[in-house]
Amino acid sequence: MTTLKTEFNNPGIGLGCMNLSHAYGVPLPEDEAIKALHAAFDMGYRHFDTATLYGGGKNELLLGKALKTLRNNIFLASKGGMQIGEQSGVKEINGAPATLRKQVENSLRRLQVEHIDLYYLHRLDPNTAIEASVGALAEMVKEGKIGAIGLSEVSADTLRKAHAVHPIAALQTEYSLWSRNAEIAVLQATKELGTAFVAFSPVARGFLANGLQDVDSLEPKDIRRNMPRFYPENFAANLKLLEQYHQIATTVGCTPAQLALAWVCAQGNHIVPIPGTRSVAHMQENLQTQDITLSADIIRQLNLLINQTSVTGNRYSPAQQVEIDTEEFSS
């Protein structure tokens, strides 16, 4: 089992920090975000996940300010290879060795640390061989700048190619009841290779957390507005799944978000979910999932109710889809 799962197994749930600064509505004011991160640590979170992309570096700066004095007691993960271009102002994917080295150096500076425990290639660069990207990160492992290498949103084939160059400690991708792509090949590949599987958006980008009933209530720049499952006509169809889903949560005696997280955790002991939230109350709610064990019958009910065929709409729009390397279900 990997260091990611064993060293920070208590708790076995990490904190995705993106939405403090990026993608979901208006970023929290800095003082409120720092208070939320301190509260997360105090309640038991130790695994904190950020990236170069988030807020154009602002999320790393935030974590640097909030967690600097706690550095020896946390597991810090960040990502590179995807950023907001300094000149273009738009998202750029670049996994070239020189770019990754520069981004690692910038991440270290923003996070105010000398070492990042886990550093992911955020996206596969179609113009750079995965072996070259991983080779560059491996050099930085030797130099002590990063402790381990991860990959994000890649296929099992890409994982195996990368792992042949240097051990891949973690593979991060979206995984929840309504995003099952990992079940095609990646979940098994990570298990075989001893790679931790880090599940982001494990409560289906809030859909399974009972917090969104009307997509018109989303902030104008919320990324879900551009995701097909949240298009009004598709979202209306997906909402019909929730009545029975909430009944199952009531039967289990947990919240809808906890039910979603418990299902993810039940899919393998090498899985580490990293739900993201800006709410301290939701952080506590998510963390309490580790006390919930689902029966085989409940898991069966959930699998029948919400899966790749019962959900309406694709995971990503065509423009977003071209950025990832994950396996896809045949239509």
From TrEMBL:
Q: Which InterPro entries does this UniProt record tie to the protein? A: AKR, Aldo-Keto_reductase, NAD(P)_OxRdtase_dom_sf, NADP_OxRdtase_dom
Q: Which Gene3D superfamilies match?
A: NADP-dependent oxidoreductase domain
In terms of superkingdom, the source organism counts as Bacteria
Q: NADP-dependent oxidoreductase domain: from which residue to which, for each copy?
A: 13-303
Q: Name one Pfam family in it.
A: Aldo_ket_red
Keywords, ordered alphabetically: Oxidoreductase
Q: Which PANTHER family match?
A: AFLATOXIN B1 ALDEHYDE REDUCTASE, ALDO-KETO REDUCTASE YAKC [NADP(+)]
Which protein is depicted? Aldo/keto reductase
Q: Which organism is it from?
A: Oceanobacter antarcticus
